[in-house]
Design brief:
alpha/beta, 5 strands, 243 residues, single chain
């Protein structure tokens, strides 16, 4: 969109003019929060959530808390370098980023599809073709799965999560390339780090991000509804029109 250092939250607050706090966050962070509290990560305080769209985003829950980083940019796992020597050019300007090697456009291009014809359905067409034995589609899915496995292996070694959750289009990529991903993890991670590791697809599906977005808005109300009601301004009676 051509935005640089846009203060989106402030501008959105001004445009909406609702008189209530406005918060914004990364979709992968919101998905991680939702899966941790209500989805495939329930019961685990150390969760890696990977969200595939056109790029790859990541949300990291460590010791029950969402990892934000100094300026809120923690968890940008899509821009973790996995192929520094011969890597594909990423939208961020670097080469060999995880999303440039295992993202939606990389998969479609490797399968001989139009990489601009993006969307989950386009990804599913490639995976379906791979399931039916089409060689080019199978090779593309194998390649994307291997690079995705490299990225996951790095995250496992760094954060020692108990569960890694695949959401967005990565839900389908994982189901189609689970063997490559597991193989790479087994080769490239410390045995102690993967000992109790579980790999799961998103339990909330396409609703994960929306559920996560609702959490900040409703958490205070759910924690103490009486306190919220006590602090609410009294509703003024509507003016009556003269007879």
């Amino acid at each position: 969109m051509g935005w640089t250092d846009q203060d989106f939250c402030t501008e959105l607050d001004r445009r909406l003019n609702l008189g209530v706090p406005v918060e914004v966050d990364n979709e992968a962070n919101l998905g991680a929060l939702a899966e941790h509290l209500r989805g495939a990560g329930v019961g685990s305080d150390n969760v890696v959530y990977l969200h595939g769209d056109i790029g790859i985003g990541g949300g990291l829950v460590t010791d029950g808390r969402l990892l934000q980083g100094t300026d809120g940019h923690g968890g940008e796992v899509g821009h973790m370098i996995v192929n520094p020597r011969d890597g594909s050019l990423c939208g961020c300007g670097a080469r060999g980023c995880l999303e440039a090697e295992a993202g939606e456009r990389a998969l479609l291009a490797a399968a001989g599809r139009d990489p601009q014809a993006t969307g989950q359905e386009a990804v599913r067409v490639v995976i379906s073709a791979a399931d039916r034995g089409y060689i080019v589609a199978r090779a593309a899915l194998h390649q994307a799965g291997d690079w995705l496995g490299v990225g996951v292996a790095n995250l496992v070694n760094l954060f020692n999560p108990s569960v890694v959750i695949f959401g967005g289009m990565l839900h389908d990529v994982f189901l189609g390339a689970a063997a490559q991903i597991r193989s790479r993890i087994n080769i490239s991670t410390l045995p102690a780090s993967r000992k109790n590791l579980r790999l799961r697809v998103s339990a909330l599906g396409d609703d994960a991000v929306l559920v996560g977005a609702a959490e900040p808005g409703f958490s205070a109300l759910l924690a103490d509804p009486l306190a919220i009601l006590a602090d609410a301004p009294e509703e003024q009676p509507a003016p009556t029109s003269p007879e």
